[in-house]
Amino acid sequence: MLRRTGGTVVLGTSLLGRLRRRDPGDAILRRAARLTLVASVVFYGCRYGAGSSTLATYGLFGTIAAGSFAQLPGPAPQRARILVLSLPVVWALIAAGSLLAWSTWAAAGGMLVVGFVVAFAGVGNPRLVGLASAFQLFYILASFPPYQPGTLPERLGGVTLAVVLLAAAEVFLWPDPVPVSYRQRLAEAADGVAAFLDAAAEKLTDPHAAAGDPDRRRERAHDVVAAIELNRSPPAWAPTAAGAQDRALRICAAALREVLGEADRLAADAPPEPIPDLAAARLLRSCADTTRAVGRSLSPGAPAVAPADLDVAVGRAEAAYPVGDGQVRDAPDVPRLCRDATALALADQVRVFVVGSRVATGARLGDDDASSALFAYARRSPWTLYWWQFRAHLAPRSAHLHSSLRLAVALAIARVAAGVLQLTHGFWVLLATLTVLRTSAADTRTALRPAVLGTIIGAVVSGAVMVVVDDPIVYAVALPVTLLLAFGVGRLLGPVWQQALFTLLLTVVFAQLSPEGWRLAEARLVDVLLGAVIGVLAGVAIWPRGAGHDLRHNATRYLAASADAVERTVQSMLGDAPPPAGALSRVRRRMVLIDSSYCQYHSERHDPHRQQVNWDAVLSAGHHVVPGAESLLRRNPPGCLAGWPGAAALLRDSAARMRSAYDALADEVAHGRTSDRAPVSTSCVDQLDRIRPLLGEADHQSVRHLVEVDRWLASLADGLARIPLPAADESIGRRRQP
User: What's the pTM value of the predicted model, to 2 decimals?
Assistant: First the structure.
């Protein structure tokens, strides 16, 4: 007996340890405890206090939909505010479902519209995706018989009570610890980059000082900048919305990556002997101070940073540019021109970071703050930005459009099937379809097995329990336990356990609302199987390849547009074409679709036998083009190199090689692979070797323009060459949890 008891204790301890390892911060158990308490209070109060089954049904399922199916971002007060503000939408969906429940076809038509609109709304703000499933459940629940419009006040009252209590519980009951926000990560990255800029400036003026310190600062800067990649943050906390502030944060992150890349090039080009009065070093120090200040400004309540001081430093650096005063009076100092051009390009990216931080913190922009087309949206209203986002995704290759249409059609078919077959609990058919259907056929098949297996296990256990126990009081007492098991322990143990325990929970609930005996478990099993079949068929028949296929297609077009923008920018400098505004605008439009496909791609399973493309690096290769071209055009006007045949030949050859490199990368992306590339040198010494034969053909001002354009092309080539290859043993079958 003691031995048996000891084994039980060991087993229980092992299970508890396993659960704690899967939920180290107890976030899942805290959420389950909040949901259990609110759901129990609402159900008991409505069912046994008010004596209303309708109030109890909508109160309980309102709690489950808002507390379990809704995945909301931010700290507890923000989540509570979102829940309360969503109530008008919830009321409208319940009212629409209640009024359309008179006819199967009317309800199915409403499901088609609601399913698409709710899912597609996530295009404007991906955080709305966290509410999509909950919104759909509210309509689904109300759209089934009995058709009783007179009970609408009770339905709305039950849901309102549930949502309000759940919002209060989010704030006051066991609130979750707040994770590191994206702004905090960005501030830390700014501090790390600023420290590296200080080290790079010191190395330019004294290459022998602090030999090991620049390397340590460089390593830290790369680590903290890598931490601001979107896939390093929880999806709910990543700045992925179409609003001005989230877009500004994404631009800030891209600008910091560009600053770090330029700083790497400057550090590698340190002169062999100290140059105490080097303009590039002075500008670097100013950039470091500005970057550090901008990072601090991202903290709540901190004042915004203005670009005025940086503009003064840039003006001084441009005035110190060694352009000479004659045709060939002195040989131009090309290495210094290269270093100064790199420092100015770096300062332009720091300015982008400054203006982006002002937009991200809600500061008012001055007339000179939106000089870059990157911030043309900053003075637009949120509704205008969302409309632009919606319009961009009304395209045949939009992964969001495909996903929304697939879900809407599947739910409408499920609603028709449940109505035609006159299923007593047809709601479960649509819930199963919603649970199984994913954005790709592979993901749908993966979700099918645990859904079906868990339902079978839960139905068998539920049927056996209902044969043995027919006293509603027992089920009333068991409700809190089954709630905690379904939404706490089930989530930690895995999808099979979660589905089985959820089936048991539904049995406990409906045994108190409308007792049917063991046939309730049978109905649950049949409904889930039907919903799963519909979900699988929709997943296989309607755009089954998911966002991966769309991502490759959109990336190919994005890279082609980037290559065209590079060529047109060079042609503009040579006087062969007008300014490349149209080409740069096309790159920005393509960027919208590829960003969307990329976000959805991370929520899917991928073929573990297929080599993975490093999408972060591929997208960065395109992101180099637009801000770099805009920066280049501000200091080097169109036609600045016209009439210089030698420069034209050199730059046309470099632009042609860049197009070939982009085309090769696009071909690799289209086939889902990346290959080795020859390293590209961006050192100023190598640049001098390239343009030395041309130095006697033009004045120093033209040489300056040539150096800047050639340096920009070399940095683009370096970005393509640095795209890392996946390790041989890298598994790409892992799936990020939404």
Answer: 0.77
